[in-house]
Write a structure and sequence with these properties.
single chain; 73 residues; alpha+beta; two-stranded antiparallel ribbon; 3 helices; 14% strand; globular
């Protein structure tokens, strides 16, 4: 585990690999999903499984709202 992974694990309680493994079974049975990541080069990448761009946009809007709601807690 490199320094940035160790830092992520300390700050949020798990590494990226542990995060992926903890949700993998749920993701494999999902109808649609969107993944947004920032690489070490600071480039943002978005991956989607939906055939519908509207579904993808809806998922992103829902995720945004859920994150904002959790900030209030």
């Amino acid at each position: 585990m490199d320094f940035s992974e160790a830092r992520r694990k300390k700050v949020r309680g798990m590494s990226n690999e542990e995060f992926v493994h903890s949700y993998l079974d749920e993701w494999l049975t999902s109808e649609s999903m969107v993944i947004v990541s920032i690489g070490k080069d600071q480039i943002v990448k978005t991956y989607q499984t939906s055939d519908s761009q509207l579904t993808t946009i809806g998922l992103l809007e829902l995720a945004k709202q859920q994150i904002m709601d959790s900030m209030d807690e």
